[in-house]
Amino acid sequence: MGISVDPVENNRAMVDKLLLPFPLLSDPEGRVIKDWDVWNDADGGLARPSIFAIKKDGSIAWRYVGVDYADRPTDDQLFESLRGGC
Prior knowledge:
By secondary structure, the chain is α+β, with helices and mostly antiparallel strands. The chain is built from 3 helices and 6 strands; from the N terminus they run βαβαββββα.
């Protein structure tokens, strides 16, 4: 799933537009984003692009937090993390 600070209506439109195969949840106050330490006050209050792989027991198996909006993991990095036992 994805989490965004955008309102539910915007997220619904994004899922439809991009045909996302996962739900996009709304967190307008940014609680989860701040709790997971991906909020970036330096850029005027934006979340850094982040991906978390969560194990079945709820623990974090892998995380990638970019330094800015363009910093994303490669497909190889992501798939290798999943092969690592998530």
